[in-house]
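Re: the 171-residue chain
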Amino acid sequence: SRCSQIRFAALPEGVVATRLREEGCEEGEATLLASLAGGSLGRAQELRKSPLAEVWGLVGQVFALPPGRTVPVLDLTEQVLRQKETVPLFLEALLVWCRDLMVSKVTGHQELLVYRNREAVLRGQSEGLALRQLLAMYRTVKQTLDGLGRYANLRLSLEVMFLTLRDLQAV
């Protein structure tokens, strides 16, 4: 074929966030969307149309799983699987939350957080966890996200991830 593909570099997050704000997006949401979009304005605009509020609610539930109880883990898995198309978004949002927990723990600088509007919650959660626990949590979510492209059993992958995250918080 005589067609050439031209690849453009990712846009800086600030540029994507600014454009989203120009389109009527709130500051916190624009920053979060820009971070999740990885430098793609089109992806950020798609994410804006997705059920973000529900996804953020599910992320919060992950860190409220009671230690030693399995039924809440199974219930959370069912909630996530009700909208299979949002599972990658949910895992990306959870990965960013884990990243922000580490940033909060190590630096305490709000301006470095993606979830800036949740700084107090992040600080509270990160204070109760050691850095090695936070790193293990990040790796667990990343491994689950990476497994999506390898025909992994989605239900089993989510259940194992939730159980691991629950147990890491209880250590």
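The chain has nine helices and no strands.
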